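Milestone M4 deliverable, item 7.
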Amino acid sequence: MTVQPHSSPATAVPPESEAARPDTTAPAPAGDKLPPAPLPPRVPGFRGSRPWGFVRSLRPRQWVKNVLGLAAPLAAGKVFEPDILRPTAAAFVLFCLAASAVYLVNDTIDVEEDRRHPRKRFRPIAAGLVPRPVAVAMAVVLFTAALVAAVVFTRPALAWVLGAYVVIQLAYCLFLKNQPVIDLAVVASGFLLRGIAGGVAAGLALSQWFLLVAAFGSLFMVAGKRYSELIVVGDAAATRKTLKEYSASYLRFVWSLSAGVAVTAYSLWAFDMGKAHSEAVPWATISIAPFVMAILRYAVDVDKGAAGAPEEIVLGDRVLLGLGVVWMATLALGVFNV
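Output delivered:
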């Protein structure tokens, strides 16, 4: 009997996919090798066309994560300086190229597993819209372009950050994703390196508090994503091997612990910022309140299993967006010593 995933907007799939969903509870053949998964039904219209498939294979919606590159210049109060903004914008674009290349490689390797997943089987490579050799060739071109452009248009140090990101993520695609705990750290490192890239491209020194907030904030989101996959997708989550090693209580512990460390580090940074600027209104300290409220609001989505895609939660939750705006406003007032 096939176990259907819980109903959730974040995991909704086209109705025609229900009949074609593979039975993930069926016993595996000898050697634990599953038979090839069938191609999903073609989505009608332009969204199911090959040209749109090439665009979707780059996962442009994931590019919103690269806005983290603005974090270090913003925390330093120099984000609007032309000499800082230009290389930071370049770092954003180059990280988009590198990240898309990683997604192409990952989807090429995981094509069989993705075809057994209720949502991922509609990805262009898994759906057969983008041939695997073409996807690999696109990844090589994007990797090369990102690294060369980093050296030519910004600082060589950014090329090292991009190179580290590429190597770590490729190692994840090949074998680290099957290592419990390590897989959480590797995915979180992708967020952390995005934040580091902005500071490195602009030639800014990164504070220890910034690195702690970025690292544990990233781990919070990653653990929440895994928790949602485990709770909402149900038996289909077995397509990700490490989920077999995690329990819901363990993942809740991880995102609770990481949220606590992130809030503590941010609070210490805000107190230091308030002392350094000595403004009449301690805006940096005040920003702790909306920051904590945003963490708690995001935790609501995590707890009900709706955090499978962090960017979808952030863009789809108006209250969370409002808290984010308030936090950014109070942070900016403190950083720019208004």
